[in-house]
Amino acid sequence: MTKIIPCLAFVLIAFVSHAQNRNKNLEATQHIFEAFNAHKWEQMLSYYSKDAVFHDASLGKPIQDPETILKRHQHLEEYFNDIRVDLKSIYPSGENVIIEFVSTGTSVQGEKLNLPICTILTFKDGKVVRDATYYDNQ
Fold first, then answer.
1. Domain that holds residue 19
2. Which helix (H) or strand (E) holds 112?
3. For the whole model, what pTM was predicted?
4. Mind listing the pLDDT tens digit for each residue in 116-127?
5. How many structural domains comprise the chain?
6. Cβ contact 53:64 at 8 Å
7. Strand, coil or helix: 39
8. How many CA atoms within 13 Å lie on the side-chain side of 114?
9. Where is the signal peptide (predicted)?
10. Which of 8, 63, 115, 136 fits 54 for a cystine, CB–CB 3.0-4.6 Å?
11. Residue 32 burial (CB < 10 Å; 0-12/13-18/19+)?
């Protein structure tokens, strides 16, 4: 019996720690999307590690340079000055948070954007280390 109690305590501590990390990741995810909608790109990127990897088909190859990502978002805002995201679902799973959302906006030429997107954020030590974004742009 005395061996079972420390084992149960370890399991309980691990469970609580996992739940706390999950909640921190969910909170960071919410802040990332709030910053996106406010077009506060530096604030949004503050939730990413300095060596985070960005995977997006429109980028060609994975990008591991926050300055490139910052410029990309600034350029996106210039083209769609009202760009925003509407969160549909958030699924935490271990160190990952899977987000379904729709990106909307109107281009400078008046074209409407209504693009369903799925992003998988991978967290380590409270920061995003991988951002993989998937969508059909056709």
1. 4-134
2. strand 112-124
3. 0.83
4. 999 999 999 999
5. 1
6. yes
7. coil
8. 2
9. 1-19
10. 63
11. buried
